[in-house]
Automatic annotation (TrEMBL):
Domain of life, per lineage: Bacteria
Entries under PANTHER family matching the protein: ABC TRANSPORTER SOLUTE BINDING PROTEIN-SUGAR TRANSPORT, ARABINOSE-BINDING PROTEIN-RELATED
Gene3D superfamilies cross-referenced by the UniProt entry: Periplasmic binding protein-like II
Lineage: Bacteria, Bacillati, Bacillota, Clostridia, Eubacteriales
Keywords tagged on the record: Signal
InterPro entries noted in UniProt: Bact_solute-bd_prot1 (IPR050490), DUF3502 (IPR022627), SBP (IPR006059)
Segments forming domain DUF3502: 425-490
Signal peptide coordinates: 1-19
Name assigned to this protein: ABC transporter substrate-binding protein
Organism: Hominilimicola fabiformis
Keyword Signal part of the UniProt annotation: yes
């Protein structure tokens, strides 16, 4: 009996040591066995951005049946429209409310800031036990997503790069024999837009944009903080952090937006207009600047009455946002992070689960054409088509009717061909300039749309914008970022 008690105490002490390591995280070895189906059922609450689905309940029921004998978990999918998602999740995080999984991306539910403020669970202690296959298939992209050396969320396994160019109406281009592959600048695009406006009265705005697809979107830079940026596609600013608003390239892009507006080629109320995608679907525009990948235009126009096509303008770049552009984070408030991570391992490696969540139930929400291709009826009551890039591993997904059969190979080749900028891997620590960043963000929120959207002459506004940024501390931000960037480049050159 004494020997049994001693052995039990030794095990308890070992368990206590293991649980105490890892900077406050529960250590994986102190959690549940990943090879055993637990007896207790755990409900996973997953928050997603996107349109709510009518028949989500039947999909959840099918998912729950599938998970029962694998990890004994049930799934609750909370889908919130874009104007609600960030507000609600930020409120929940600030209040320390419980949830399990959230989609995170820069500018919506910021990954890096929430990692540093403790909203997300650090995953490193869990990787080998619960998500080894997921991290292995991500490769260096997982390291690209680290903040201060730690991984706080799982990147979506998808295209990890982008090129910039045009997405446009294929039927209109063919009607007028327009070769968009030969058009690389707005100077070359302008006469095409004028011709379409003259000959196609239904094309009320031959070029259209939201605040992320203006002429400025053809520029390639990484935003560090406020308007402090590092350029990728020009050697003019090599090794330098610069104020975007003070560059002639930015002024030129904003002038083009204003010129296109003054020519009557852009929606007159572009400053206040909403729902760019609906305007596109209505067929009243010819083209827009887009962030491209293979097959992007076909995906976008899958439910349109016309087909879109695409043409690239820029090189393919894999930048510092490659890992953080679309991620799933586990909340620090999760009641069972081990079970949640077991679910995420399945989501990223199990095609049946991935397609069930993305497309629903075969015969009810979609029909199979062949083993790897499906057709989705227009009146389906459930589909996350077009949102696959926001969760899991897109390479597990069915192709939809009309998509190229070599889509997966094309996406992987796209990733392989991507160029990496010299600041690849640089992560700015904003601790020393948090107040200045907040002040500059306030200025940016006041002036950015005024200069990029096109309805105002940007030149006089830009001068006022730059002056307000200086008063808010942009130069201090640039100085601090430059110091860290110089150190990063020096260390990189030693390797």
């Amino acid at each position: 009996m004494r020997k049994k008690i001693a052995a039990l105490l030794a095990m308890l002490m070992l368990g206590g040591v293991l649980t105490g390591c890892g900077g406050g995280n529960k250590v994986a070895t102190g959690g549940e066995d990943p090879n055993v189906v637990p007896e207790d059922t755990y409900e996973i609450n997953w928050y997603m951005q996107g349109m709510p689905q009518e028949d989500v309940a039947s999909v959840e029921a099918a998912v729950n049946d599938y998970l029962k004998d694998k990890i004994n978990a049930t799934l609750k999918m909370h889908r919130l429209e874009s104007n609600q998602y960030s507000k609600q999740l930020n409120t929940m995080i600030a209040a320390g409310e419980y949830f399990d999984i959230a989609w995170t991306t820069p500018g919506v539910l910021t990954y890096t800031a929430n990692a540093r403020n403790g909203a997300w669970l650090a995953l490193d202690d869990y990787i080998d036990t619960y998500i080894p296959k997921t991290i292995e298939q991500l490769g260096e992209i997982a390291d690209n997503a680290r903040v201060d050396g730690k991984l706080y969320a799982i990147p979506t396994y998808k295209e990890m790069a982008d090129s910039r160019g045009w997405t446009y109406r294929k039927d209109i281009a063919e009607k007028y024999n327009i070769n968009m592959d030969n058009i690389k600048t707005f100077d070359e695009l302008l006469p095409v837009l004028k011709m379409i406006k003259e000959n196609e009265p239904n094309m009320q705005y031959p070029i259209d944009w939201g605040s992320d697809r203006t002429p400025e979107a053809l520029m390639k830079y990484e935003e560090i903080a406020g308007t402090a940026v590092i350029f990728y596609d020009t050697d003019k600013y090599d090794g330098k952090v610069v104020n975007l608003v003070e560059t002639p390239e930015y002024l030129e892009a904003c002038k083009w937006a204003n010129k296109l507006y003054n020519e009557g080629l852009v929606k007159k109320d572009i400053m206040t207009a909403t729902d760019f995608e609906q305007r596109l679907k209505d067929g009243k525009t010819f083209c827009y600047v887009d962030f491209l990948k293979p097959g992007k235009a076909k995906e976008t126009s899958a439910k349109f009455d016309f087909e879109l096509d695409q043409s690239t303008v820029s090189d393919i770049w894999q930048d510092n946002g490659a890992g953080t552009g679309s991620m799933l984070a586990v909340s620090r408030t999760s009641k069972n992070p081990e079970r949640v991570l077991r679910f995420l391992e399945l989501l990223n490696t199990d095609a049946t689960l991935s397609n069930l969540i993305n497309y629903g139930i075969e015969g009810k929400h979609y029909t199979k054409i062949d083993d790897n291709t499906i057709t989705i009826p227009d009146d389906t009551s459930y589909t996350l088509q077009g949102y696959q890039w926001m969760q899991g591993n897109v390479f597990l997904n069915y192709l939809t009717e009309g998509e190229s059969p070599d889509k997966v190979e094309a996406l992987k080749a796209f990733n392989a061909e991507a160029k990496k900028p010299i600041d690849y891997g640089f992560k700015f620590d904003n601790t020393a300039v948090e107040a200045e960043i907040a002040a500059c963000q306030t200025v940016k929120s006041e002036y950015r749309k005024q200069v990029i959207m096109g309805s105002m002459d940007p030149e006089p506004i830009m001068k006022e914008y730059a002056a307000k940024l200086k008063a808010a501390g942009i130069d201090k931000i640039i100085e601090e970022a430059q110091k860290q960037y110089d150190e990063f480049l020096a260390n990189k050159n030693k390797q």
